[in-house]
Amino acid sequence: MESRNVRLDRLEKGGLQVEGLELTVGDIEREELWDEPAGPYHLPGIKDLRRWDHLLLGRYDSSYEPTRDVCDLCTFGPCDLTDGKKSACGLDISGQTARMNLLTTVMGAAAHLSHAREIVEHVIEKFGPDVEIDMGSKNDVEAPMVRVIAGTIPETVGDLLPVVEYCEEEMNHLTSATSTMQEGSPLEFDSKSLHAGMMDNLALEIADIAQISAFDMPRGDEDAPLAEIGMGTMDPEKPVVLAIGHNVAPGTSIIDYMVENGLEEEVEVGAVCCNAHDMTRINPHVNVVGALSKQVKYIRTGAPDVVVIDEQCIRADVLEECRKVGARLVACSGQAVHELQDVSDRDPGDIVEMMVDGEDGVFLPEIEKVGEVAIETARSVYEDRLGRKAIPEVDELQGIIDSCTECGRCDRACPEFLPITDAMVDGMEENGGDWSGLEELWDRCVGCTRCDEVCPVMDPMSVQETASEHRWKTERNVVRTGRGPINDTEIRNVGAPIVLGEIPGVVAFVGCDNYPDGGRSVAEVIRDLAERNYIVLTSGCSAMTAGDHTFEDGQTVYEMFDGRFDKGCVSNVGSCVANAHIVDAALKIANLFANVPLRDNFEEVSDYVLHRIGAVGVCWGVYHQKALAIANGAKRWGIPVVQGPHGVKFRRQELGRPDLDERWVVNDANRDYEEVQIEPAPEHLGYSAESIEEMAVMAVKLCMRPNDTRQGRMIKLTNYIDLYRKYFDEYPSDLARFVRHEKEVPLTEREEVMEVLEDRGWEPRETPNPTMLREEDRLI
Amino acid sequence: MTQAHSPGNVRVKPGADLNGAMLGKLLNRPGTLFLVGSQWKELPDGVLEPLVDGGDVILTGSANPPVEKVARMGVSEACHLLCSEGSLGGEYGQVVFVGIPHHIATGMLSKLKHYSDATAISLDRGFQPDANLAFPNLSREDWEEELGEAVERRSA
Lengths: 780, 156
Ligand code: SF4
Ligand code: SF4
What we know:
With 780 residues, chain A is an alpha/beta fold. Chain A has 5 domains: 1-33, no CATH class; 46-215, Carbon monoxide dehydrogenase alpha subunit. Chain M, domain 1 (Helicase, Ruva Protein, domain 3, Orthogonal Bundle), CATH 1.10.8; 226-385, Rossmann fold, CATH 3.40.50; 394-472, no CATH class; 479-777, Rossmann fold, CATH 3.40.50. Helix content of chain A is 43%, strand content 13%. In chain A, strands 9-8-7-10-11-12 form a 6-stranded parallel β-sheet, sandwiched between helices. In chain A, helix 11 (348-356) links the parallel strand 11 and strand 12 (361-363). By secondary structure, chain B is of the alpha/beta class. Chain B is built from 5 helices and 7 strands. Chain B has a 7-stranded parallel β-sheet, with helices on one face. In chain B, helix 1 runs parallel beside helix 5 (140-155) and helix 3 packs parallel to helix 4. Chain B is globular. Classes of the chains: A alpha/beta (780), B alpha/beta (156). Chains A and B meet through strand 3 and helix 27 of A and strand 4, helix 3 and helix 4 of B. The structure holds iron/sulfur cluster (2 copies). One iron/sulfur cluster binds at residues 404-410, 420-421, 424, 454-458, 460 of chain A. One iron/sulfur cluster (SF4) is lined by residues 404-410, 420-421, 424, 454-458, 460 of chain A.
């Protein structure tokens, strides 16, 4: 990598303060020490990986699902795109839909990239640029994506800045491509969406390795400690500080102040969303209040004295919600300021006084002051707050429920189509006053407050909350704290069985909790897959959902299964940015098990992942643009993704056509790169399932790879058949496509299945050494 | 015009309101494909079988109703094939969505609207503006009544 000049507005270290510092960072000397051969894609630009994208999208159709008939992005419009009509700028509905998918991906990737820059700059400002990148003694391959894309081995956090700058440059080109009268081809928009996804994934890796190194978070801890999760974990009788968002920097300030002043027993600190993961990675005594859906629900209980927000996944009306209960808001990031007064120049004591005197919020981007301000404000105001809340009292609830007019507006407004009206009607006194339906809704409700917006007489979400008060007040489970990277040592143990197919697959449950029907079924699928010896990974809100539910013996999946990266284990990698470690695990398998060089070698690495590593991402509760960005990145690396039904609102799936043999032809590296037929594996690259059962079956199916050994394929088929029968109560009709040899059919079914296959003219096939590349494109 | 469940999308040609009598008549047309999804159990007892009688059925999601099917596949897969010439594209003049969860159905109906010539009918209780024909947002009682009427018309 070339050296680059980077500018820091401010550096503080050991009493030294420098403004406007210019640094030259580079790694030319280190490159000489790294003897891995380099591929052709050094810092690939917007156009450089088109060939790979076109190969992928030649196999997987872009299935467009437009959400709008018109484009109104410029003043030529709005333009009608129905019936094959083009817009004034010449774009048709496919082009416009692909463009919107790109724009959405760029939004998500920008959120992660901005986060990465803020974390890297914060670390450099606080500790200097020489903080060593340290992923622990079990990890020599510290930053696989940086190695593949930037062709460098970063040694310090300062080394990450030029990579951030590269991503920013690419993101600018990508944003430019969405403007009117630039790109015109749907395929090229799709290629750019994949590029934006790759930028996203790289930004995740940068952010997480910087924060792990600087804040001493777990470095591949195979037995990471358990943290408490649930609204009942917080003691509302104490001063309460709630952190919301994704950037852990203010959280570190809160933890430091609490620990340095010995206030752990006196003050309750908790967090929702990814901040909760990252704060527990630093101090497992921080409480995980819950996933995104708990944000407003928890504020409305009146428990938080101070709410600290940083960036991402913060409701736009957070200040209004805080005002309802008198909680003070501290905004710490320029991304979300909420018109609050900038108090950076004031002493923490003054700021506390302001808030105690009634100021309902401040903007405080001086991170080092946040801990003192938040905790001391909470300590000063909590006694006045006790008893205040924004949900009805239990003794007034019956009257409120009885006032329901049964208009049904809440049902229509609810993004999950929950039967709110039916639950209200059952809860009415004249119908016996059964509130159990409302209680059940509380579990499935994603906390969006849309029903509150339309109801003419009440806030239905708050009604549900009071009706289920006894549940959330005692809600107390456990989530494994984020372990960070998957260790090189673990990869060496499981690389072979994964690639050969003997471990049936790696299934990663990632992303948000916009679940169409609650989170319990997600935890059930995780348990089911772990029992079937899949390696199960979790992250973000999905990781919290997994810890939110217990099974017969009162245990969560984190207590039932080990936290190693091994068959039959369930590991939480951590927050959104820790998703990088899931992709990284696949890259490490390619590198450590198969010796595929990482350096500047994107195509060959991804080709390896696509054809050999049975990994699948599941984003069942997809809601944020970031989820799309993560998914599009994973797809470009060759990892298929299954989304929940809301996923179609991102407007595109990448669907294989198993009925078209010509789509499933690869080169066989064992036979002079001669073209050979393979089975449709993985069958789709991006797929939205309508039900959790369909998701489970699809996830298992998408773990098949053309490289599976016979025994590996038999194990994968056994699981596919089992789950298909369990959920659909019949045999998979496409079984024949995946059977290459009689021995791949599970023993118990062999006779029966072979009879059917032979009747259909089935013939055995060899297992190839599959690649979509030519010999000259590969280093191995 | 009935308000869409997902408001705010500017639709040039929103679908029209459907009623039981109209549905009963439409279902007698040949070349009808039913996509029956995982929420089929929300239909009143005994309605599904007479509704789909005479048409081809593809089961989607985890649906497993007691009706004869021509295939099982994801609704995403089925709609993609319905928009692909040389596959299911052009095979059916009419596609009826039954028990497909609302949000994924919205995406699929939009896909059919833009990429297929088939008439798309939604039997969802909530209005689907991207279908050519869909029930307006109905209470459960009204919905059951309309479906009952459709069945009666069919058998009449
Ligand atoms: S707050 Fe809950 S119940 Fe209300 S509309 Fe949102 S998801 Fe539905
Ligand atoms: S919107 Fe309000 S009044 Fe109308 S049905 Fe729902 S809870 Fe009842």
